[in-house]
Structure of L-aspartate oxidase:
Amino acid sequence: MPRSEHDVLIVGGGVAGLTLALHAAGHRRVTLVRPASDDQSASRWAQGGIAAVLSPQDDFDAHVADTLVAGAGLCDERAVRFTVEQGPAAIEWLLSLGVPFTRDPDPASPYPFHLTREGGHGARRIIHAEDATGRAVLDTLMANALAHPAITIRNDLTAIGLLADTLGQCRGARCLSERGEPTELLAADTILATGGASGLYRHTTSPNPASGEGMLMAAELGAEVMNLEFQQFHPTCLYDPEGTPFLISEAVRGEGGHLLNAQGERFMPALDPRAELAPRDIVARAIDAEMQRTGAPHVWLDVRHLGEAAIRHHFPTIHAHCLGRGMDIAQQPIPVVPAAHYSCGGVATDLDGASTVPRLYAIGEAACTGLHGANRMASNSLLECLVFARSCASRLAEVPPPLPAPLEEWQPGRRHVDLDQVRHWRRAMRDIMSYRVAIVRRDEGLENAASELRALSAEVEEAVNHAAPSAPLASLWHAMRLARLTVMAARARRESRGLHFNPDCPEPAPNPQPSRLHITDIE
């Protein structure tokens, strides 16, 4: 099998991976494995913006307090404060690279860039590039990475597993070429920036969602995973059964959009004093309950009262996209439904992104830093990507070379697995997760999910044990086991908290703890 040696290996090329690459390249040579599908990663579809304390009328304590409230008692306050306090410097760095954030048209504004407000925030602190912030940031980072002499981007490879040596250290990644040929990239340090696990569900806010592949790759090496049961469903995804997923940014509600039921009535003010700006878990459950009550396939998000000029100014991407699907949001409300959006759990890491496996790091949505707790507050995700990529790069500048040790052996099978069969298994897994482990979970449904996934997993495992390597099969096998760990975590949490709501145990526990699992815990 072909093998090459590298210094710093980053798997994943969204905002977290590219930010790390640009910072680490000041001290070490970087190889970034970024398959073409990363162009449609969650980073690119982030519309709302980046939360940071930028206005002189805002302060760190307020941002910390808002995050802790949204996290429903399960945040690590040390991680929250660390993230919030590093935010302004991270934004200044993006500005220095030329990210085209939207300027405030008011010359008397205390901050030169427009700051919007989203759910859970007590102040305007979301800096944005119109309503396409992820795309603007990602394009700027990519342009800088392509021009950097110490960064090599491999967009012809897909990682399917990690390499371990006999000392238990991570030593790189096993990849497949575009033609399915295996190759090994040995590395002194390996960083996963592979995204979350919303692809475990049938309906998502991204056209090409990750399914937790990186999380499970880390778990295979013995890394601890944490808080997998807290899967965030974004309240407002465009309802269009025949079209591709499209997120309707929370900033639409931040600027005054109203949620309406099938009768055209607002329902959020009666449920929460924050109304449409309540945290996402509350809004998503309210929409789900309203749909169940009325039998409607969606609710409505109405911005007509803002006026066409304001809509076109604040939401040009959303306006144009909906117009392309035959909906003029200046003249009619937008049909919306909740959809799987963000994984608050992932590979357990410290404040430098280090996992429990030596020489293996995780950043961005693949990691669980303790920032989000039981529910991520809006626009803290890109902030986390930036802050922890920068802190991880500082750690990498200081770590000594790894001790030499032989690699563990790998013997792949040779049998071909039909791609249609792989698709069938993936659809079955997503259906189980969507029906049993979504916005509202019950004991019986979780028990059935565990049983159904166990049987499905046995079928897939039989194929994997004898199959020749393939990216679709590897992705499915990672996703299948992560789904089972997610169900385990959900069954073990005997309370309702944040994104985990179980009517069979509706009250929050007095002393909540993060869930921590290893791959050996799979039943």
Observations:
- The CA atoms of residues 334 and 346 lie 33 Å apart.
- The first strand starts at residue 3 and ends at 11.
- The two ends are 34 Å apart (CA to CA).
